[in-house]
Specification:
Elements: H1 2-18, H2 29-43, H3 45-48, E1 53-56, E2 64-69, E3 74-78, E4 86-90, H4 102-118, H5 127-132, H6 146-157
Antiparallel strand pairs: 1-2, 2-3, 3-4
């Protein structure tokens, strides 16, 4: 009987570990551009008013996309939905693929390697779910340091 339970448990465990309902997948340039618009609108509303944004596919493997904002700054969007959408941004300057600092080149190459290593083994990022969750009202309604306040009131009334 115990052996049968062990076998059933192992079978269920193997099925659970082997099953991945959401496979990571590449995102298109259009999807990345929508994420960039959303980012500028939420994080930097003053930059969102810029009429045009230039898209640059900086990665040969489409591991990331870079969008310049005409009002200044750029945002780096991941090319795979298993990764946090915004990999980096700045509110000043612009992205020039010809004149990148060595540190940024290394960072972008690292992004390419990491995103390529993901393959189809990771679940899609649940950022949309996390940001849609508003949370609940805090249940703690008591004031902190009640003892301190009650002691000082007693001393002054005596």
């Amino acid at each position: 009987m115990k052996r049968l339970l062990h076998i059933q448990f192992l079978l269920v465990l193997l099925l659970a570990l082997g099953y991945s309902p959401l496979q990571a997948k590449r995102i298109t340039q259009w999807q990345a551009q929508q994420q960039a618009y959303s980012f500028w609108g939420k994080q930097m509303p003053q930059k969102a008013k810029a009429k045009s944004r230039t898209a640059i596919t900086a990665s040969p493997s489409d591991a990331y996309y870079v969008f310049n904002n005409d009002a200044g700054g750029f945002v780096i969007i991941a090319g795979d939905d298993a990764v946090t959408p915004v990999l980096g941004y700045t509110s000043t300057g612009s992205f020039d693929a010809e004149n990148l600092p060595d540190g940024l080149k290394d960072l972008l190459k690292s992004y390419e390697r990491q995103i390529a290593a993901l393959g189809d083994n990771y679940q899609a990022n649940q950022t949309a779910t996390r940001t849609a969750f508003t949370g609940e009202k805090l249940l703690n309604t008591a004031e902190w340091n009640q003892m301190l306040h009650s002691t000082s009131i007693r001393q002054t009334t005596m």
